[in-house]
Write a structure and sequence with these properties.
Layout (H helix, E strand, L loop, with lengths): L4 E5 L3 H13 L3 E5 L2 H8 L6 E4 L8 H8 L1
């Protein structure tokens, strides 16, 4: 069985690191992006089980990013 993959989208690297570290201890693969654009590009390849998206990103509104990820 493959590990679930979660996309983390936050412009604060420390926040991404902390959440990714917690998820990895539970066997979840975490991929961090620091902009909405990077998140949409990463998600284009598919394979993510879930996404945690900051609502205030430097280049996009988090709700708009969520809409694009769907």
């Amino acid at each position: 069985m493959t590990a679930p993959r979660v996309l983390l989208v936050d412009d604060e690297p420390d926040m991404c690191w902390a959440v990714a570290t917690l998820l990895r201890t539970e066997g979840v693969e975490a991929v961090a992006c620091h902009t909405g654009r990077a998140a949409v590009e990463a998600a284009a390849g598919g394979g993510f089980t879930a996404a945690f998206v900051d609502l205030k990103l430097p280049d996009a509104d988090g709700l708009a990013v969520i809409d694009r990820l769907r």
